[in-house]
Design goal:
The complex is a heterodimer.
Chain A lengths: L2 H23 L14 H12 L2 H34 L1 H14 L8 H7 L3 H26 L3 H9 L4 H39 L4 H10 L3 H29 L23 H10 L16
Helix pairs in contact in A: 2-10, 3-4, 3-6, 3-8, 3-9, 5-6, 6-8, 7-8, 8-9, 8-10, 9-10
Chain B lengths: L41 E7 L12 E5 L4 E5 L6 H9 L6 E6 L2 E2 L7 E4 L11 H11 L4 H14 L15 H14 L4 E5 L7 H15 L5 E5 L3 H7 L2 E4 L5 E3 L12 H13 L1
Parallel strand pairs in B: 3-8, 3-9, 6-7, 7-8
Antiparallel strand pairs in B: 1-2, 1-4, 4-5, 9-10
Helix pairs in contact in B: 2-3, 2-4, 3-4, 4-5
The chains are: A mainly alpha, B alpha/beta.
Pfam families (chain A): BPD_transp_1 (PF00528)
Membrane topology (chain A): Multi-pass membrane protein
Family (chain A): Belongs to the binding-protein-dependent transport system permease family.
Chain lengths: ~300, ~280
């Protein structure tokens, strides 16, 4: 990113904060009412205070633990179920209708079920987080597996590979770009749901703390909670994004934005060596992209 | 090969397609590996081709491919050349008739019959080396051994220094060379090639033909090579099978670059072009 673009991004953020500070410190009260609203400065001070307390970090740890557990469960089961449904007609008939009926139910509406089913609140919150991420992962995995080029599977079959080989050498790696699309959506929905679930039934966690602050009219505290949720959400989705980009480094990317997988580089070639190569193999220079040619 | 459009046509009306075992020409290697039962590696007997969910192709195919032979298959578009190869590979069951390798019916794809595709069939997430190692890994060869074997094959196709690259970092011609290396690394008994050089420009294509001739030497592999290019068929094939008429013709001077002006080759070329 160029320095100019960085500056623009920083300026946009600073302008939003500045506007907030102005509206709240002047107690602007037009149609929107800013008189009860804490100023940016108050929120910053509250955040600085909270950062020095142990409960803040405990809450953060609780929320992170819940989201990691729920999300990893959703990723593993989602990829498994999505692949099974896409690859096996039996699994599609067995699980497909069930998935389609449960999918439209918002994960947060499953809170009563979680309370009824699971012995502890903690498990209930993890369950909600799991349910939120599970469906985006299943749906994107199913689509990605169905969209795989048949030629990859046929190549492995004619090299002697069996079903398991096809699964691990073709289906799972080939579906990865689509799977990560689902994981990115999933981690975002998981955050929304873990915070909501904590607000409803948590005993610790960022969502619980934010709701507590609201009930005791500690408005700067509510904003500290929001800032924390935003930062953690950004952190987790960036982590998923980075892992995804690394796992799919083989995908063609527009020039200049390539992930530059150093391991895949062939190593520098001397001009003399390159000249020899061109002389020995004239076939490399003019090769066109594969396409089906008309048969006379 | 006998491909009779009305099913009633007598196979006898097409003399070169009689079920006599094909005689390998002087250039083809290792007749000792012939199956004693039939003398052919690949056999199609009265096979009707077609996808299970589509109409069957007209006519039936009867064809024998001798050990070490390179049989070129030419024919007009849509006549079922690719379907023939996919049936031989075991990816597609025949609608009727018998397809066999070394006398045993082909029930599904196997490492014995490697397929080289026209399109890019390398796994794009695997390095060039890992692609070539694939058939060896499937066979359960230990890592160190298969690394050496893959390096050897990449060297043969002139891509030793590209081993750690991804397929997308290579040109189309280089990717086809990797496909060749991958197909041959598993030491298959038969290699089925579906217009492998069809997407390449003329210059690259000639280089690939020479490379193919070069690396097939000594492998003893039996090759069925589908192409729409009559000159390519005449250059590479020991015999040329015409998919439309069912004729199988001997090529007088297989794999000789200077043979295209010889009277025998020129006459055969005219005959093939006339029948297409």
């Amino acid at each position: 990113m160029t320095a100019g673009r960085r500056l623009l991004r920083a300026a946009s953020l600073a302008a939003a904060l500045g506007l907030w500070q102005l509206l709240t410190s002047w107690d602007v009260n037009l149609w929107l009412r800013f008189e009860q609203f804490p100023t940016a400065g108050e929120v910053a001070a509250a955040l600085a205070d909270r950062l020095r307390t142990v409960p803040y970090w405990q809450d953060l740890g609780h929320s992170l633990r819940r989201i990691v557990l729920g999300f990893v469960l959703a990723a593993v089961l989602g990829v498994g179920v999505g692949t099974a449904v896409a690859r096996s007609r039996w699994a599609a008939d067995l699980l497909g209708p069930l998935l389609e009926v449960v999918r439209p139910v918002p994960a947060i509406a499953l809170v009563p079920i979680a309370i009824l089913l699971l012995p502890t609140n903690e498990q209930g919150i993890v369950f909600i987080t799991f349910a939120a991420a599970f469906f985006p992962v299943v749906v994107s995995t199913r689509h990605a597996v169905r969209a795989l080029a048949p030629v990859w599977e046929e190549a492995v079959l004619t090299l002697g590979g069996g079903r398991l080989r096809v699964l691990f050498s073709v289906v799972l790696p080939g579906a990865l770009p689509g799977v990560f699309g689902g994981l990115s959506v999933g981690i975002g929905v998981s955050w929304i749901c873990v915070i909501s679930a904590e607000m409803i039934s948590g005993e610790y966690g960022v969502g619980y703390r934010t709701w507590q602050d609201y009930t005791v009219v500690d408005y700067p505290g509510v904003f500290v909670g929001m800032v924390t949720i935003g930062a953690l959400g950004w952190l987790t989705s960036t982590a998923v994004e980075l892992v995804g980009r690394r796992a799919t480094a083989w995908l063609p990317r527009p020039a200049g934005r390539a992930a530059s997988p150093a391991a895949f580089r062939g190593g520098g070639r001397s001009p003399a060596r390159r000249g020899r190569e061109l002389a020995a193999a004239p076939s490399t220079a003019l090769a066109a992209a594969p396409r089906k040619e008309p048969v006379p | 090969m006998s491909s009779a459009t009305p099913a009633t046509a007598s196979p006898d009306s097409v003399p070169p397609a009689t079920p006599t075992p094909a005689t390998p020409t002087a250039d083809s290697a290792s007749p000792d590996s012939a199956s004693p039962a039939t003398g052919a590696v690949l056999t199609l007997q009265d096979v009707r081709l077609g996808h299970a969910d589509g109409p069957a192709l007209p006519g039936t195919v009867t064809l024998r491919v001798a050990p070490g032979e390179l049989l070129a298959v030419v024919g007009p578009s849509g006549c079922g050349k690719s379907t023939l190869l996919r049936t031989l590979a075991g990816l597609l069951p025949p609608r009727q008739g018998r397809v066999a390798q070394d006398g045993r019916a082909i029930a599904g794809p196997a490492a014995d019959r490697a397929l080289v595709f026209q399109e890019d069939a390398l796994l794009p997430w695997r390095t060039v080396r890992a692609n070539v190692e694939l058939p060896l890994a499937i066979r359960g060869m230990p890592r160190a051994e298969r690394r050496g074997c893959a390096a050897d094959w990449l060297d043969r196709v002139g891509l030793a220094e590209h081993a750690r690259k991804l397929p997308r970092q290579l040109s189309g011609g280089q990717r086809q060379r990797v496909q060749l290396a991958r197909a041959l690394a598993g030491r298959p008994r038969a290699v089925l090639m579906d217009e492998p050089f069809g997407a390449l420009d003329a210059h690259t294509r000639a280089g690939m033909q020479d490379l193919l001739v070069d690396i097939l030497r000594g492998t003893g592999a039996t090759v069925v090579f589908v192409t729409h290019d009559v000159d390519e068929a005449l250059h590479l094939g020991d015999r040329v099978a015409l998919m439309g008429t069912g004729e199988v013709l001997d090529v007088p001077h297989p794999r000789r670059r200077d043979a295209q002006h010889e009277p025998g080759t020129a006459a055969l070329r005219r005959r093939i072009l006339a029948s297409l």
